[in-house]
Amino acid sequence: MLHNMKLLSQNTLNGHGGMGEGMSLQLARDGRRILWLAHESAPKNFTAVDVTDPRQPKVVAQTDLPHAQMRSNSLETVGDVMAVAYQVSKPGLKPAGVELFDISVPERPRSIAFFDASGPTSRGCHVLWFADGTTVHAACSDPDQTPLDPRDDQVYRIIDVSNTSKPVAVGRWHLPGTMRGDDAPPPKRLPKKFDAGFRAHNTNVYPERPDRCYLGYLDGGIMVLDIADRARPKLVSSWRNSPPYNGFSHTVLPLFGRDLLVVTDESIQDDGADWPKLVWLLDARDEKNPVSIATLPVTGVKPLLRAGGRCGAHNVHENPPSKGAWRSEDYVLGTFFNAGVRVYDVRDPYQPSEVAWYIPPKPEGSSRPTAQINDVFVDDRGIVFAVDRHAGGLYALEMKL
């Protein structure tokens, strides 16, 4: 199913098409466009795809994880350096943290250094943001902290990688009341059916406001943090819609020229069991008091709630401040699992409209009844790259706006 989109190609990545939410474009020294992709689960670590011709994507590198009890759900590139997040399946396992790679020769990624975040209460790093070449902002456990509830184990951490051979932790922030030793009382949890934890997720920092982190914090909602002093991040504001909604605030995308925030709540249960999972528009003219003004339309999503697998919002194209990436404050692209990748016109933020979408058929060989589109990245040619969580691999699409 498609509207104002055209499928250019699909690549199942050598049969390892279960992808995470790490997509980053490298403009290689030889002129090629290399799209780096993180895998959702073992055995693969990351895959590099030459997308210079999006009609004929070619896998140029694919690596394995050290063992099956870990995942590399997230990665980012800056120039010839890539940061990869490692999360283990249970606290205490290794390696858990962030690994830096030299990718100057895409076919031969070379490890530079490892930031170790392992420990008795740590599962390592789930998601990271690496845009300025000197700092990794991460949703990562801190072995020096003990969460009161194991679901609250990953916090916001700031890692200095200006010396890529020696990454150093320089700051952290967590929701008060979630760690042993906190003065604040524990926050009230969601009902057991929906309790996914109070922990950090996407940690976006942009050159327009390098002193701000736009932080998704799952059941804790979203936060804007002042990180001018990176050793001591401070809360500027927060916005939480759960309860009455069902948690898992995932991404905060600021549209700086519009004074808007785009916020996604990830669907994590099959067959719409945690519906509604929406994309929200917040008025952020007063950053200390963000106000919800709209949600993106779901007329194309709701009919698929019982079609199988997850259905509802996940991530958006995050306007990465990197060479080769498309940036827009008028259009938002989001992924909705079995409802595919969808494009919204937000020029009128009080009345956003759906203008394009693509829903692939069930991937061949998948154990799931539907495609599960997990993440999206758009390059500066307007080519849309979307990935499937389980089997479909990489889709290259052309959109008409």
Q: What's the pLDDT, averaged over the residues?
A: 98
| Residue runs with pLDDT of under 50 for 5 or more positions | none
Rg from Cα: 19 Å
Write down how many β-strands occur, each being a DSSP E stretch of 2 or more residues. 29
Gap between N and C termini, in Å?
17 Å
Domain count: 1
List the helices and strands and how they pair.
Blueprint: E1 2-3, E2 5-11, E3 19-27, E4 33-39, E5 44-50, E6 58-64, E7 70-71, E8 75-78, E9 81-88, E10 97-102, E11 110-116, E12 125-130, E13 135-141, E14 154-160, E15 168-173, E16 203-206, E17 209-216, E18 222-226, E19 234-239, E20 249-255, E21 260-265, E22 279-283, E23 291-295, E24 331-335, E25 341-345, E26 353-358, E27 373-378, E28 383-388, E29 394-399
Antiparallel strand pairs: 1-26, 2-29, 3-4, 4-5, 5-6, 7-9, 8-9, 9-10, 10-11, 12-13, 13-14, 14-15, 16-17, 17-18, 18-19, 20-21, 21-22, 22-23, 24-25, 25-26, 27-28, 28-29
